[in-house]
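Subject: sequence -> structure tokens, single chain

Hey, anyone have a minute? Need the predicted structure for the following. Not urgent.
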Amino acid sequence: MLENKKLFLLDIDGTVCLGRQLIGGAGAFLEDVRQRGGQFVFITNNATKSIDAYIRDFQSMGVATDYSNYMTASWAAIHYLKEHYPGQLIYVMGTKSFIRELKKNQISVTTDCEDEEIACVLISYDDELTYEKIRDTCRLLSTKQVGYVATNPDFVCPVEFGYVPDCGAICQMLGHAVKREPYFIGKPQTDMVYAAMKRNHYTKQETLVVGDRLYTDILCGYRAGVETALVLTGEAKKEDVEASDYKPNYIFDSIAALHKNW
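Reply:
Had a minute. Here:
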């Protein structure tokens, strides 16, 4: 039941924020979670920002957060690479910020497609994308036997004016050229959900996954055995739910409507 929820695992883009603007009622909801003794954790497929950058962004929007409030696709990618490619060289197509985050966490990275030591290609959302990057990545994936992973399967990223292509769309574009599909690390994989519950000592029954996408947020909660709430401030629409194999437990017009019913 909704009133029993204590741990809220929240998507950011399209759920709590649009760009660098809070969606109406989001700030009041986050404050009330704290006042009632609960916890919120942002589980986001956005790998372009470090946790430090997110903390600064939310502070500028009037919401105080710290490291305990975040689990990002960057975090998930770092843990995946350390487990599956320990000490090996990773070719990255992503933003400078994302590459810095990987290096900061002792991941050996390169952007030179001719490096002979490359073990795996990692793709992320990249708003600094150039055709040179696309060509180099296609060359590597087409000519060498390397692993191929991506941070998240999201097709679009919501911004103030609508949407821009996200990592999943970039990988679809590459797929047409190289005839390969990556393993996607972020949602709907369940690692961030389980890690957030373990870190905060809450049960599945006390946890709610909240997001605006059926194929990432809602599927993630469904796979983890956690109840889910879809908000209609981002990608998914009500009619999309009818066609989906995985239904949210709750549907709300916005985070403010969820708050009202909690």
